């Protein structure tokens, strides 16, 4: 017979020891990646673990081999360009150029020249001939980023190019044949933009052949851990920080955050955390500065506090000592993936507390939400394995 409190402390120490041992290896062993293409533009791999993202990746791969125009929508920072590059690299045009233009970043006159090119002397400052992105993307893929921001007068000209597959440079008269695949992105509701008169309906129908909506990071929480691992590896080398992974508390803090800035914000958070780690080998929760938090305050570890006494905390619970030892032996073997170890610990802790998720979460030092999310993931994976 051992007390619930002492049993909980021993289990937490075991869980923390195992987590730290495996977290350094997590991102090599426990993230899912597709061959050859890019969420991490450098190594051309889409990094994901969430079922929601997996479905989007499958659709993107299906359309990649066709010449079909694709419209990628989603909030700012979700990785729309990453998916566009993925589609290009999985397509039959992979050996051709991937050329992108941000329709929101240029004035109407500059955007027209960048899209369609111009002849020498076409306007003041046009001292030489310039090939636009349609010509530069010939034989490859053209990304029209934030197409919803394109002025209406250019939308009409774009529509003609898409219909005829010919472009006429500004100041020119000769049509130039172009062989391109179009991928467009937007962070707006394009149908609403059409209804409001900001976007041409005929152009909308032309580009909305195969729409793909990329979910916000908060709607695919299982992607947070592997994405954080990828960017930690990438940025730790750049910043020369000897960081090998995260503590459980750090991952917990990231997974419970809403990420209004999506992956772009995650990258910023990781970079700040790496700077604050100093010589630490693991990123801890106090290194992670979220929106609204102060860097100086977050960079200091909070003093340890004694847990408040709660009803039923000091009641005695029977624990099978042989089973406890079996748990420890299994975890010391070091052959299971972290997700497998974590699943065993969560399920056995739930058994100990007769399925009470809040008490199991308290015992493991995590939130009830994390327990619920993990159980949903395990249930989903079990269903997939039975199909």
Structural commentary:
One of its GO terms (molecular function) is sequence-specific DNA binding. This protein has 387 residues and is of the alpha/beta class. Helix content is 48%, strand content 10%. The chain has helices at residues 4-23, 26-29, 51-64, 80-89, 108-116, 133-136, 152-164, 190-195, 201-207, 224-239, 248-255, 262-277, 295-298, 321-332, 338-352, 357-364, 368-386; strands at residues 2-3, 32-33, 47-48, 70-73, 98-102, 141-145, 166-167, 176-177, 181-186, 210-213, 245-246, 282-283, 316-317. Strand 7 (166-167) and strand 8 form a beta hairpin. The longest helix is centred in the first third of the chain and has 20 residues, at 4-23. The two termini are 43 Å apart.
What is the CATH architecture assignment of the largest domain? Orthogonal Bundle
What's the Cα radius of gyration? 26 Å
Instruction: State the shape.
Output: elongated
Number of helical segments with 4 or more residues: 17
Cα end-to-end separation = 43 Å
